[in-house]
């Protein structure tokens, strides 16, 4: 089987398996097996795949046909300006979360806390773009923290990572607090795609309740962990803007809703006066 044969065969296989965007996913997986960028597949010289490449490719495509996310299969996701390791212990960083990065970099800060850091994609991205700033990433999952540490080290960002359940055990104050917390309500979980529901860590997806538990904890402890005049930026589900804003307003914050590139409510900025 040649490279171009594989492109056609596996695009059809994933399409028949009901994978939305199957041709694109097949190219991402094939490119990862060949260790090239996906765009190179169309212009590189065609050749026969080796036996090892064919075996790896077939196993990977079978996994995708079973709805395992591409990022878990290939082991990485390109997010903002860097490539991040992804495992089944972490959420797959999503393009809409880049709105949180842009909002953070529009603010003045020199110290940042990222709660529920997962892969570390948010923390590492903002620290890489803000040389000299200090950052801490916290997560309740030790497996996720191991991935975050590896990503920070590989990208060349210095950060501190701690095991913590929101503010429990966290010391110090920060100019900026960031979080993309679990915000899917228990009642909404059944409606998720199999790629998410069957493969991503539920602890990072849902609070098992109304989807607002994490925001309550973040809002209630924010003032005690911010420097005077500090800010909180949290990612939200597109219907949660009013509810999450109200939680921070009840703690004395001024709030605004920031949309993503599709125009949907995506980030709440809560600012606390000194």
UniProtKB/TrEMBL annotation:
Q: Where is the Methyltransferase small domain?
A: 108-187
Protein name, as recorded: Release factor glutamine methyltransferase
Residues that hold S-adenosyl-L-methionine according to the record? 116-120, 139, 166, 180
Report if keyword Magnesium is assigned.
Answer: no
> Quick one: which residues bind substrate?
180-183
Question: Which reaction does this enzyme catalyse, per its entry?
Answer: L-glutaminyl-[peptide chain release factor] + S-adenosyl-L-methionine = N(5)-methyl-L-glutaminyl-[peptide chain release factor] + S-adenosyl-L-homocysteine + H(+)
- Give the UniProt record's GO annotations in the biological process aspect: methylation
Print the keywords alphabetically.
Methyltransferase, S-adenosyl-L-methionine, Transferase
EC nos: 2.1.1.297
PANTHER family in the record, alphabetically?
HEMK METHYLTRANSFERASE, MTRF1L RELEASE FACTOR GLUTAMINE METHYLTRANSFERASE
Q: Name one GO molecular function term.
A: peptide chain release factor N(5)-glutamine methyltransferase activity
Cited function: Methylates the class 1 translation termination release factors RF1/PrfA and RF2/PrfB on the glutamine residue of the universally conserved GGQ motif.
Report the Pfam families cross-referenced here: MTS, PrmC_N
Decide whether keyword Methyltransferase is in the record.
yes
Output the superkingdom of the source species: Bacteria
The scientific name of the source species is Paracoccus onchidii
- Please report the stretch or stretches of sequence annotated as the Release factor glutamine methyltransferase N-terminal domain: 5-75
Which family does this protein fall into?
Answer: Belongs to the protein N5-glutamine methyltransferase family. PrmC subfamily.
């Amino acid at each position: 089987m040649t490279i171009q044969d594989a492109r056609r065969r596996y695009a059809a296989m994933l399409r028949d398996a009901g994978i939305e965007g199957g041709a694109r996913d097949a190219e991402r997986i094939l490119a990862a097996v060949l260790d090239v960028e996906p765009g190179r597949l169309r212009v590189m010289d065609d050749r026969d795949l080796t036996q090892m490449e064919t075996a790896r490719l077939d196993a990977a495509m079978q996994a995708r046909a079973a709805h395992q996310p591409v990022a878990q299969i290939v082991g990485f996701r390109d997010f903002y300006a860097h490539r991040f390791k992804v495992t089944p212990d972490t959420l797959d960083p999503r393009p809409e979360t880049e709105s949180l990065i842009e909002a953070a970099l529009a603010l003045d800060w020199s110290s940042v806390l990222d709660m529920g850091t997962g892969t570390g994609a948010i923390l590492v991205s903002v620290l890489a773009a803000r040389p000299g700033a200090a950052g801490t990433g916290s997560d309740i999952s030790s497996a996720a923290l191991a991935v975050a540490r590896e990503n920070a080290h590989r990208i060349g960002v210095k950060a501190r990572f701690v095991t913590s359940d929101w503010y429990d055990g966290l010391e110090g104050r920060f100019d900026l607090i960031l979080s993309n917390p679990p915000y899917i309500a228990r009642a909404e979980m059944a409606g998720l795609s199999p790629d998410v529901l069957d493969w991503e860590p539920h602890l990072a997806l849902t609070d098992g309740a109304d989807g607002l538990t994490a925001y309550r904890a973040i809002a209630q402890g924010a003032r005690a962990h911010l420097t005077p005049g500090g800010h909180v930026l949290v990612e939200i589900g597109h219907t949660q803007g009013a509810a999450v804003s109200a939680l921070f307003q009840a703690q004395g914050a001024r709030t605004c809703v920031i949309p993503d590139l599709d125009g949907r409510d995506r980030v709440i900025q809560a600012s606390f006066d000194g």
